[in-house]
Amino acid sequence: MSATLPLGEQLVANGCITARQLDLALQRQRATSADPTTSAHLVGRTLVEMGYLTQPALHECLYRQFAAERDHYLDNPAVAPVIRFERVVKILDGRRVLDAVDLAIPANRVTAIIGMSGGGKSVLLKHMVGLMKPDQGTVRVGEERLDAMSGRALRQVRGRFSLLFQGGALFDSLNVYDNVAFPLREKSQLTEEQIRGRVLRCLAEVNLIGMERKFPDELSGGMMKRAALARALVTEPEILLLDEPTAGLDPIIENAIHYLICDTFMRTRYTMVVISHAVPEIFQWCHHVIALHRGKVLYSGPSREVDASPDPVLRQFIRGELDGPIQVI
To answer: What is the residue extent of each domain of the chain?
Structure first.
């Protein structure tokens, strides 16, 4: 199924809804939305509200479409990269945390970065947004060298990114609405009315409408992750970085967050980079996998092929076996 088709048309083509149902949902969107640009963006929510789909059925339809695209990526992995690392070295406390790393993040795809704790995943993420600079090598975002930038030029490139922190990093003193609005108030020239429209749209996208006045200590772990995702989405980034989005969640909520990430990708087509310990489950939710171990790239390629890697370290890590080259006991 062509990823260039609008989301509603993809749902029709896959038999999830009828063309008539889509037309009625779009009519309702246009009639009730203050922002006409959301008519196609949030059509899935409207289809659920009108009873044409249940929320689980919508998620399952989107996942089937995503899985088909993931399979297509296996045979067509030549996607232009949006982020490139070239022989990147980073030494911290005398240890090579990144050791001559070469990798490419494909544009408009979901990439998962896996590896043991302390293997360099979070350091890699910090290099992608210029929070760290390599001791050797280059980091490129598009055609721009991030490692050679500072000041205003660096801030402009960072504006292409949004980051979902591992713990959510919500401000305890702000309610959900103000947490999500925060980056717009700090960095944009939008009016408060424009900010309100965008915040409410993002809360709708993560199913948190009605929770605007709740504070972080009133939210469950899953709701905090959704609020943090809404804040990451509100700036409408080109590239979305997610650091352990399912850490500390029970299996059902973890699954729900994976479906939400899939839903977000299918609607927005942002480039997504996900650091995850949810192995091997994460392979179902991404196109591309990068495996790091002791600062080196063990594997970089389609998620459908990572299980077939002959590397003994990677095979042990994926299977969670005690016997192997990684000594843990």
So the answer is: 7-75
